[in-house]
Amino acid sequence: MRIVLDPGHGGMDPGAVGNGLVEKEVTLVLARLVREALQRYESVEILLTREDDVTVSLAERVRMANEVAADVFLSLHVNAFSDPRPRGFESYIHSSLADTGRTAQIRAAIHQRTAETFLRFGSPDRGPKKADFTVLRETRMPAVLTENGFLSNPEDARLLKDDRFLRAVADAHARGVAEAFGLTARTKAPSPFPDPPEAHTRPNKLYIVQIGAFRERANAERLAARARACGFEAIVKEVDVGGA
């Protein structure tokens, strides 16, 4: 099963800002925690639309999810409002979808688990909603967008600065996905890197594996993201290949 996690905003687009928080930073932390939680289940491949603080257009996010034929697209956001009083959790599917369809069923599982977590920490459930968001409209697989509290609200902002809360919210998202797709928990947590082979090493030698070379950096970043999702350390290096 292939899951694309979409940390909202990034790079030149900070998203909402308030109470010492920047949405693009919170969503990236949350996405990494959701990935960590999902890796506790068998037969999953998790990709992120961005791994760092980079600008990724909505069209690029959609294109990535469609190109890799994801089974589900989960976009993570944090809410904000001019009035500091609103707070809590809400989730979205596209406005054209039926309440009884497959996407609605997946959203229901994610929403239930995450709303329960918010309530446990004293923040309300604002309910499931629908909207004509680009990432919900243009993706060709079930797509859900979650708004994880209001950083404009002092109480929610305090929670969003708490690692314990963020981990609980991430675990709730992962449990919802697992329940919706019938995923099986691993009996043992996977090692982030494979065991090294039993072989003789040579001093002062380093062996490098390259898995791709591209003219466009975006393609290289996309492949690196897939390698990281599989547990490998991956870097993108720019090389001058011009002739003499």
TrEMBL record:
Example GO molecular function: peptidoglycan binding
Recorded superkingdom: Bacteria
UniProt xrefs under Pfam families: Amidase_3, SPOR
GO biological process: peptidoglycan catabolic process
Domain SPOR span(s) in chain numbering: 201-244
GO terms for cellular component: outer membrane-bounded periplasmic space
Keyword tags: Hydrolase
InterPro entries named among the record's database cross-references: MurNAc-LAA_cat, N-acetylmuramoyl_amidase_3, SPOR-like_dom, SPOR-like_sf
UniProt-recorded name of the protein: N-acetylmuramoyl-L-alanine amidase
Source organism of this protein record: Brockia lithotrophica
